[in-house]
Amino acid sequence: MLTVRSCKKLNTSQDLDKQTKAPNLFEYATSELTQDAFLSWLFEHIRLNTSGAPHRMAERLLHLILEKYQSIDLTFEYPRLSDYSMKKIKQQWKNIDLLITFSSNVGSENIHIILEDKVNSGESRKKQLEYYTDKLKEKSTGTIIPVLFKTGYASEKEKDDFENRNLVFIGYEDIYDLFSPYEQEFMEDVILKSWWSYFCERYYDPIEKAKELPIENYTSLNCFREEIKDEAYPEQIVFKVLTDYLFENLHDHFLTKPFRFQGKGHVDWHYALSRATWKSKERNISVHIYFKWDTRKFSLILKTAPYRYKPLKKLKGEDRESYMASRDAIKEELKNHQVGHWKENNQYLQIAHRKGLSDTPMGQLKTEMERELKEIARVIDTFM
Hints:
By secondary structure, the chain is an alpha+beta fold.
């Protein structure tokens, strides 16, 4: 039998001598408005035609934006920046984080860059940048370049969505690749140096470390949670690393889907397991298994629902009778099979949960869950 090791803190690169480290302004001003101010400050060096590292980095970022947009809009001719003048940088115009306008010195063409700045959050409304673009078209002419600048983690699904919407996406990897070759230059400017240091410690390093987070067979879920709770690891990456490990041998047996659910004051991360046959209109039932993390505890539950979901109060007549009959029949079959560490629940949707989930060494848990979930699947398949 594997034994659970005592919980201890993971070592990180931030275990530095804090007493010799100068305070960083960006550690105290962490909102997106602070990042808006930094980007405005950075691009202002182009408008004022200053010299030094901030001006050079602003031009490099501008070139990256224009190059990415050119790959999106093949009709866009890459401009010679010497032919354009930056006229103004507006903050929060029509709720746009940054609106940067360039006017041509040799013609009447304008270039507008709408820059929506994100830290970890998503868009505040559906197709936010498209909405801003339409608003700007009502007031201005010229080329409009919509840019999403995000220092936090973005999933591949998010990035695919931005690409399909023809948005210029500047993510944490783009930022690192653009800025990192010039780290020595940042010593010239305390603001640039401080921002870069904060970006690496708060975003880039935790994201990269989370991707390589070790899952050890003898560690329990409780210990794992204790080890990471004070780290800045993106929860989405942590959950993916964990579920990739726990369920790696079940992809051929189940349809799987990770998703995020906003709970009361916190986010729940779900990993759903099901089968195409686990939804029956005739029996008025659908069945899913969920591995769930609400960042405080883990759970593995078996849930049923009416074929077309309705809250219990609105489920009436034949719909109610057929669902309850199907649900109770599945519960009875599971009870007869006495599957492993599973305990029955008498709830509207949740009909069973896995006991001892968080205290079992993960290597042992993984093996037991694979066996138990396959057995549960056979029971459900027989009924459906």
